[in-house]
Design brief:
Family (chain A): Belongs to the cytochrome P450 family.
Strand content of chain B: 25-35%
Strand order of the largest sheet of chain B: 4-3-6-1-2-5
CATH superfamily of chain A: Cytochrome P450
Number of strands of chain B: 18
InterPro entries (chain A): Cyt_P450, Cyt_P450_B, Cyt_P450_CS, Cyt_P450_sf
Strand content of chain A: 5-15%
Structural class of chain A: alpha+beta
Structural class of chain B: alpha/beta
Shape of chain B: globular
Organism (chain A): Agromyces aureus
Number of strands of chain A: 14
Distance between the termini of chain A: 49 Å
Radius of gyration of chain A: 21 Å
Strand order of the largest sheet of chain A: 1-2-3-4-10-7-5
Oligomer: heterodimer
Number of helices of chain A: 16
Order of helices and strands of chain A: EEHHEEHEHHHEHHHHHHHHEEEEHHEEEE
Keywords (chain A): Heme, Iron, Metal-binding, Monooxygenase, Oxidoreductase
GO molecular function (chain A): heme binding; iron ion binding; monooxygenase activity; oxidoreductase activity, acting on paired donors, with incorporation or reduction of molecular oxygen
């Protein structure tokens, strides 16, 4: 790759494609070049301004006034092109429209509300671990745990029926691909997205939602007037869109980190209270959500570069989380590290509203696993699952020894 | 321990101190204050209807609605009415506080959220106009219809009356009590699913609105009383102790140092994320003592319970706080 500074703009530019198969499969070398090239780098191929350094990304995430979301958080400019589905009321909205849906969900998914779920999810996690190890101590950690656990507990927590849950992962997978350019991944998912979308949208209706869960609480908010009845199904859709694949890949990340760092697994087994830190350290390291776009609302100067108004910027969350300007020895998975302040969940008004749910899911599973399993190791090279936005595993063959 | 410690802690510790950038008397009893952070960084984001806790030099804490522009990340604006009944906070602001002084803040918190609606009717009594100003901006931005009924003692005593009239003309109805009473109930009219009513003002006005809308669907008429609830004990201006239950250890937290920083400094693991009291990641159980809540998360009931706090911003009112990590 060549990164050149071209007068008169003096913007470092690159012709590399962050959405190419090679970069998606191993984004770290590209991210390193991106950070070294400057605070802001022009991706020539797309006419998009990229940022990969921690301070720059964090500042951009916080600055919703300068970098808007309602023009889409993918490469598509909603002001000029039609989005593939009605925009999200959370992810693809700005204040003031964003305020009500956000406050409703933040309350429903808040740490205090989730406390009541913890014992049940802990029991669910223990049951799943028992089932898996009863079948044998060699398993695919993606299928057996990373996918199985969220699919077992999260749709129940939302309150959607069992029937049809197989639509959730491919729906989310395409959604996260669609934030990127129309490449091979989008083409691969496009033929089937209609049926997945139809099913997901159908589950958001009031008459499909069972009582007592997150979905029911969203509809109750509509009854109180906190949302309109038109908004409620779209807020439920946000849960189903953003709450499954992300958590699956986050759990995949933490399991991979432990399988490749047996000393850290031993530390966790000694001190199970490290599970929370372990999860966030894995999110920092892997950043299951790698990138999001924003659109400039005015001309913005950054690092000596002028970004014109109405231009897409691309924030590399994973790169920010491994920026050595901010993190000591960033590529190490280290439970002694304090990962506070990582941007794997974003930051600011759009910070992952479901992060407490994801954390509780992951902590429940990891805790249950640590209780039953003394060591975990990979038995073959794990295989990446490629996605334009997500960093994920397709398979992760593992062996455990029972405690 | 990580290399980012110092940088992050400096940010955390600066979060609850702001500088009075400007003070402007806008009526004979109302002072308009503009606040900003000393380091020029962003203030926490807020939504229309939010208020902040203002912590004066002696620890006196009062709550004021934010009235400025949510799009300005660097400034908070509040309006402080001089109270006659001798509660110290407002007198201190009017007579002692000066531009350039440092005050503490908590929040912002929102117990008076603007919820979506095709149409709004805003009713303000006196200084109750303050939360309505950002609400009106948001309603207009969302393309909603709105009208404002603004009641006060006399036109000259009603802050922002002229600007409202000038900017919005016939959407705004001003009525001073020296010119006769207004029948609030008839101005509100009958329940309409497409209209939400927001009222902020003195108890008499709130009661009139509550009566007029008693039979309505809950949530379609929302009220906020503007007289500051007494925030109880004043905030501490001195150091306090934090005991970590089961560890046998007590750490001292000096003024200007966040509890989260002090805990980390002492070697305890504590996961934080936003460092602003917004995200909830660092929620910690409180098993003894009286927390001084500065977060944007807990509602009044949860605050009063005193059984948890957010150490990235919140502090202690008691000499010692006992927490469970």
């Amino acid at each position: 790759m060549t990164i050149t500074s071209t007068a008169p703009s003096l913007i470092p530019t690159t012709d590399e494609d962050p959405f190419s198969e090679a970069v998606l499969a191993d984004p770290l070398p590209f991210q390193h070049r991106l950070r070294e090239a400057g605070e802001v780098v022009l991706l020539e191929r797309y006419g998009v301004y990229a940022m990969g350094r921690y301070d720059t990304v964090r500042s951009a995430l916080l600055d919703w006034q300068g970098f808007e979301s309602s023009a889409g958080v993918g490469i598509t400019d909603f002001r000029a092109e039609t989005p593939w589905r009605p925009p999200s009321l959370l992810l693809e909205a700005d204040p003031p429209h964003h305020n009500a849906p956000r406050s409703v969900l933040a309350k429903i998914l808040g740490p205090r509300e989730l406390r009541s779920m913890a014992p049940r999810w802990q029991a669910d996690a223990e049951a799943l671990v028992d089932e898996v190890v009863a079948r044998g101590t060699e398993f695919d950690a993606v299928e057996s745990f990373a996918e199985a656990f969220p699919l077992r507990v999260f749709p129940d927590a939302v309150g959607i029926p069992d029937e049809g849950r197989e639509h959730l992962l491919p729906y989310g997978d395409h959604l996260f691909n669609a934030f990127g350019p129309e490449n091979f991944l989008v083409e691969h998912g496009a033929p089937h997205i209609g049926e997945h979308s139809a099913w997901v949208n159908e589950q958001c209706a009031r008459d499909h939602i069972s009582s007592g869960g997150f979905g029911d609480a969203i509809w109750a908010a509509a009854d109180r007037g906190d949302l309109t009845t038109e908004q409620a199904p779209l807020v439920v859709r946000s849960l189903l869109s953003a709450g499954v694949d992300t958590t699956v890949h986050a759990i995949g990340a933490v399991l991979h980190a432990f399988a490749t760092h047996p000393d850290q697994w031993a530390r966790l087994r000694e001190d199970p209270s490290l599970a929370r830190v372990a999860f966030d350290e894995a999110i920092r390291l892997e950043a299951p959500v790698q990138t999001f776009f924003r659109t400039t609302t005015r001309e913005i100067e950054l690092g000596g570069v002028r970004i014109p108004e109405r231009r897409k910027i691309l924030m590399f969350l994973g790169s920010a989380n491994s920026d050595p300007r901010h993190w000591h020895d960033p590529e190490r998975f280290d439970l002694a590290r304090d990962p506070s302040g990582h941007v794997g969940f974003g930051m600011g008004i759009h910070q992952c509203v479901g992060q407490h749910v994801a954390r509780l899911e992951a902590v429940s599973l990891v805790t249950a696993l640590a209780r039953r399993v003394e060591t975990i190791e990979l038995t073959a090279a794990p295989v990446r699952h490629l996605n334009n936005t997500l960093r994920a595993w397709k398979t992760m063959p593992m062996r455990g020894t029972l405690a | 321990m990580t290399v980012r410690k110092e940088a992050m802690d400096a940010r955390v510790d600066a979060v609850d101190a702001v500088i009075v950038e400007r003070m402007r008397r806008i009526t004979d009893r109302v002072m308009h204050l503009t606040l900003r952070r000393a380091d020029g960084e962003r203030l926490p984001d807020w939504t229309p209807g939010s208020h902040i806790d203002l912590v004066l030099g002696d620890g006196t804490t009062r709550q004021y609605s934010l009235l400025g522009d949510t799009r300005d990340p660097f400034r908070y604006e509040i309006a402080v009415v001089r109270e006659h009944d001798g509660r110290g906070g407002s007198r201190h602001v009017h007579d002692v506080l000066q531009a350039g002084d440092v005050v503490g803040i908590g929040g912002p918190r929102n117990n008076f959220r603007l919820v979506p609606s095709p149409r709004y009717r805003f009713i303000a009594g006196g200084i109750g106009i303050t939360p309505m100003l950002p609400m009106i901006r948001a309603a207009a931005e969302m393309g909603a219809e709105w009208e404002l009924l603004y009641l006060g003692r006399s036109l000259t005593s009603m802050p922002f009356a002229d600007q409202l009239l000038e900017a919005h003309g016939e959407r705004v109805r001003l009525r001073a009590s020296d010119r006769g009473r207004v029948d609030v109930a008839s101005w509100i009219g009958a329940f309409d699913a497409d209209t939400k009513v927001y009222t902020c003002g003195p108890v008499s006005l709130i009661e009139a609105v509550v009566d007029a809308t008693a039979a309505w669907r809950p949530g379609w008429s929302r009220v906020e009383r503007f007289e500051a609830s007494d925030a109880g004990e004043p905030a501490r201006t001195t150091a306090f102790e934090v005991e970590v239950e089961g560890s046998g250890r007590v750490i001292t937290v000096e003024p200007g140092v966040a509890v989260a920083s002090a805990l980390r400094e002492a070697g305890f693991d504590l996961l934080t994320s936003c460092s602003r009291g917004v995200c909830g990641t660092c929620e910690t159980d409180v098993v003894g003592g009286d927390p001084d809540h500065r977060d944007a998360i807990l509602d009044d009931v949860e605050r009063a319970a005193g059984n948890c706090f957010f150490p990235c911003v919140s502090r202690s009112k008691s000499d010692r706080l006992v927490i469970a990590l």
